[in-house]
Amino acid sequence: MRPTCRIAVLALLTGLCLLPWSAPAQEPATAPETQPVMALQLQDLSWLVGHWQGEAPGGGVVEEVWTAPAAGAMMGAFRWTGGDKVMVYEFLLVEETPEGLVLRLRHFGKGSVAWEDKATPLNFWAKSGGEGTATFEAQTEKGWLRLVLRREGEGLVVVLERESGGPLEFRYTQL
Predict the structure, then answer these.
(1) For residues 168 and 163, what is the distance between their CA atoms, to the nearest angstrom?
(2) Gap between the Cα atoms of 16 and 23, Å rounded
(3) What share of the chain is helix, strand, coil (3-state, %, to 5)?
(4) Quick count: other Cβ atoms within 10 Å of Cβ 127?
């Protein structure tokens, strides 16, 4: 595939991450609820710390970097590249709140231009977790979103599920 075609395909896939898919909806085991789970603590996510790299669905390279918990938060960054172009950046922040853990996410394009409104990040509330796993859910105007993070052996798997469409799965190894 020519580099310009591959970049166009990756740009399309990136845009699809935020839009409902036209494929038939896959029903989740349970619909997301609005209340976070209080039992999951920030320290329970320590297994996420590190620099992770993998192949994006459809091609390209994805990276995530997570810092250790400190001062009630963990900071993360995500980058998806295709060839010599950056498809998307994400800034991620897991914070302790009185209501439970929340994963706040913002997307950025070239030039650090935010995709979301300045005052409104995507807020994913912790729903479940255990040793090496955590599930966060968000409600948006386009429906629910679910992020499932889990360790598999020495690797990291992140799955994005949406109300409309199939899941996107990212598999990483630690650098």
Answers:
(1) 12
(2) 12
(3) 15, 50, 35
(4) 21
Q: pLDDT digits over 85-110, tens only?
A: 999 999 999 999 999 999 999 999 88
What CA dihedral angle connects 116, 61, 95 and 20, to 10 degrees? Answer: 40
* Cβ–Cβ under 8 Å, residues 62 and 55: yes
Region of 60 (left: φ > 0; alpha: ψ -120 to 50; beta: rest) is: left
Tokens of 143: 């429906």
Domains of the chain: 3-174 (2.40.128.20)
Question: Cα separation of 87 and 166, whole Å?
Answer: 20
**Model confidence band, residue 36 (pLDDT cutoffs 50, 70, 90):** low
Q: Could you give phi then psi for residue 110, rounded to 5 degrees?
A: -55, 140
Tens digits of per-residue pLDDT, 113-129? 888 877 789 999 999 99
- Residue 86 in 3-state DSSP? strand
Residues 6+ apart with CB under 8 A from 32: 127, 137, 138, 139, 144, 146
Residue with tokens 């060839």: 83
**What integer pLDDT is reported at residue 2 of this predicted model?**
40
Tokens 């091609």 map to which residue? 59
Q: What is the pTM of this model?
A: 0.77
